[in-house]
Design goal:
The protein is an alpha+beta fold. It is about 35% helix and about 40% strand. Strands 8-7-6-5-12-11-10-9 form an 8-stranded antiparallel beta sheet, covered by helices on one side. Helix 3 runs antiparallel to helix 4. The protein starts with a helix and ends in a 5-residue tail after the last strand.
Length: about 280
């Protein structure tokens, strides 16, 4: 082989290595995309919370995402939605978890749609079809590492959740012991549940799982029929229907002045009795 041929071959190899390095290099995100994402970051988390999260154990769900690229009216993200629930005061458990790669479509500063990749045999095909080539290569070559930052954030959320739940349990126990008064008390069976309505919030112990919710309506003692709306753990607005009429409760063999229906979701309602005094 001639020296000139070796020189051409060496140059070709250098160019090939350079191009391969460019293909595998992490995609640089433009300032315009970063700025647009900053404005819509919380809206993306809220959209994921409402459309992708699942609460299988009645716990609270958190969704977080990481931006890995973008183009006109699209963000490319990796996201993680995780449910946390509590059974006893000093334990926080992980419930249902969802992780995926996704394309976020937005227009006029509003999220329009989020398309997520499938798992299993369809994963590679989805990634290649959904994302630009450089982003797809980054995902396929570095999939596990893309979740690291989000996993660290989820661990921090779990620690914060534990601290909050300790405070929630202390409040629940203080009402149960009669040290603090609630505006309204309710309970029922099948499954066993207890609810305390305060001025701006409510505590719900359902099947030994404690949750705390902001309420949009205060309890009105003089009302015959009323609805107290509360914000669920996935951001939905649910209702507590309270009717002032005597209700006999079989387990305690007592009659209470209120009937109570607590909507957990569109398919499940807790039914029980209530009073403005502590239930015995």
């Amino acid at each position: 082989m001639k020296i000139s041929d070796l020189a051409h071959l060496s140059k070709y190899l250098m160019i090939t290595i350079f191009l391969l390095g460019c293909d595998n290099k992490e995609h640089k995100i433009s300032d315009d995309i970063l700025s647009a994402h900053l404005l819509l970051e919380e809206q993306i988390n809220d959209f994921l919370l409402k459309n992708e999260s699942i609460s299988s154990f009645g716990g609270e769900v958190y969704c977080r995402h990481k931006l890995i690229g973008g183009s006109d009216n699209e963000f490319y993200i990796v996201f993680h939605c995780q449910e946390y629930y509590q059974i006893i005061a000093d334990s926080i458990f992980e419930g249902t978890s969802i992780r995926s790669l996704a394309v976020v479509k937005w227009e006029n500063s509003e999220i329009r749609q989020i398309l997520k990749s499938r798992d299993g045999g369809a994963f590679r095909k989805d990634i290649e079809n959904m994302f630009p080539r450089k982003i797809a290569l980054q995902i396929l070559d570095n999939r596990s590492n893309l979740y690291i930052d989000i996993m660290d954030e989820m661990k921090a959320l779990r620690r914060n959740q534990h601290e909050r739940r300790e405070k929630n349990m202390l409040l629940f126990d203080s009402i149960l012991a009669g040290e603090k008064k609630a505006d309204f008390y309710a309970a029922g069976g099948e499954p066993f549940w207890t609810m305390y309505v305060l001025k701006n919030e409510m505590l719900l112990m359902n099947s030994n799982i404690l949750s705390r919710h902001n309420i949009l309506d205060e309890f009105q003692e003089e009302s015959t029929t009323q609805v107290v709306r509360y914000i669920s753990h996935i951001g939905d607005t649910n209702s507590v229907e309270i009717t002032r009429e005597n209700q006999f409760e079989e387990l305690s063999s007592r009659t209470y002045p209120y009937g109570v229906h607590v909507d957990i979701n569109e398919n499940f309602t807790l039914r029980g009795v209530g009073s403005t005094n502590s239930l015995e």
